[in-house]
Write a structure and sequence with these properties.
heterodimer, A: 422 residues, alpha+beta, Cytochrome-c3 Hydrogenase, chain B, three-stranded antiparallel beta sheet, 15 helices, B: 222 residues, Ubiquitin-like (UB roll), five-stranded mixed beta sheet, 7 helices, 5 strands, 36% helix
Amino acid sequence: MSLSIQSKVDRVFGHLEVQVDLRDKDVKTKFVVMDDLRFFEHVVIGRKFTEVPYIVSRICGACSIAHFLASVNAVEDALKVEVSEDVMMLKEVMNKIQIAQNTVVHLYFLAILDYLNSRNLNELALSKPELVKSAIILNSLCLQATKLLAGRIVNPNTYVVGGFTKNLTKEVLEKTVKTLDKAEKVARELIKPIIDLDLPRLEDPEPHYVVLDPPTGYLSMSDYIVGSDGVRFRKSEYLNYISEGVSEYSTSKYCLYNGKTFFVGPRARLLAFSERLSGVSDIVGHVREELKNPFANLKAKAVELLYCIANSKEVLSSLKGRDLNIRTDVKVRAGEGVGVIEAPRGLLIHHYRLNDQGIITYANVITPTVMFSKHVEVATKSLSKKLLEEGVSLTEVEAKVGALVRAYDPCLVCAVHLEVRR
Amino acid sequence: MVKVFVNGKEIDVDVESTLLNAIVKAGYEVPTLCYLKGIFNEATCRVCIVEISSGRLVPACAYPVSEGLKVFTDSERVLKYRRAIIELILASHKIKCQSCSMKGGYCQLLKLSKDYGVEGIPVCSECKLYGSECLLARGIPCLGPITIAGCNAVCTNEYSQCIGCRGPVSRYDVLKEGVELYVKYGIDVNEVLRLAELFWSSLPIIDTLRGLLRESKSGGKA
């Protein structure tokens, strides 16, 4: 048998080819990222700590807020800045709204097309105009809320190291809550088609995951990371557990957790903390059984979409009429800091070393796509093996492999900024 | 028929014609804004000024030809004054024009200001339209005074420093004024330069800025 699939996966952020080599009995798969290296870790060296969040938020237009916040967290950790609880809360809300917006784009403009027999959004708009219309409305509502809190829809500018630049006015708060209220109504209807999807069956071959471990709440900031094996460690020790490697066929790196392939992202978060999702527990019940299936990342995302919007609204409403402590003084000092955050696609780690003038001397960034890239390979392998045993045609295998990769929502432009360390 | 010399080139034109006709006939170009052939020749914008033999600067679209008249369309003096005229027009113009999506070359004024290097409106002017408090007064190094306007001052309105993502203003006098502002407010010029290098390090103007900042530093010490 001389069969192989070289599928250029479309509808992902960046350029990706998934190679499935079927010549062996033991199927070989490769996750080949074809974007050029971007060397962001090198660019920030020699820059001042205040500029770094501005630079790294430009790594990715889709989740610039996640990169911005992770970087801010790392710098604040290095300078031993203790921001107030109000600031923490607003940061979390910013992150949640961004996750919601990212999820809308991924679910309704990219991933759902695989299951509704449409090749592109135009076809879907003809067959299901209501779905596309409300997805666009929801996207724009999330962007409006982002703009109100973060100043811009990409590359936030209301925050500097130490806190927010100005106090949230009553009008902005009310406007944001109103926008989120509208968004929640749309989202409640919109996630139904995703929750009801009949996903292809696939048992996760490597069910290990790593998530951020907040003491309370879901998608909150935390200094601790926890693995599916129950090991809990401080963020500064991440290098002892998560190792990076370079593959010769791809421009992105890969990660291993204790030498094992693992995944991050909405499915991991839901597997770990599904009982903490207040307000959407009825939907979580529907989804929980399926979570062992990598395809179910889509459903996990849908649950998070609703939760993020509803929770952000709740938190912001509770801030009404309160005086917020939004700024902490920053003293420049030498230090080392790690910032972790749950980005839309999973755990994001920024790690910097500063000298006594506040100049960056070392930087390391590990993005979610890098973390789960090996897991995509393993899952693809298991899927294509299973499909071949069932005697499915090659085109069908290719389509299914594409759908599986898209379920992970890889962001390749994030993945390739990594510098190769020797 | 009369004989005129356009940039030294001899050419015969009709007695009734204007300098602009003669210049075009000779194969030279003079920018125009308000002139519309046969409809409007009141010479209100003055962008089409040229120098004549007596040394006067006259609007080409309305000035009649005469025997033996010498015309210079791009002498140093003409270019200097034309630039000043464009600056004056822009000064009473909406700043938002600078970020207009028609900037691709459809708007004659913006095209002219690009050709003549008149992109002299800094972010400060937009920032002030919204009544934001000056960040320099708070001691924050902000690139607003030396960055091209057109972003609606989106960062400075949020009290976050301008990082110059739209590029530097190309006018030396504005740059100089900006540097003077930094000195006045006691901002560390090294900080300004570091921030400017974030987006502008590959632009030739960074050397000009470096020189200006160095000058201000030594001046401050003396």
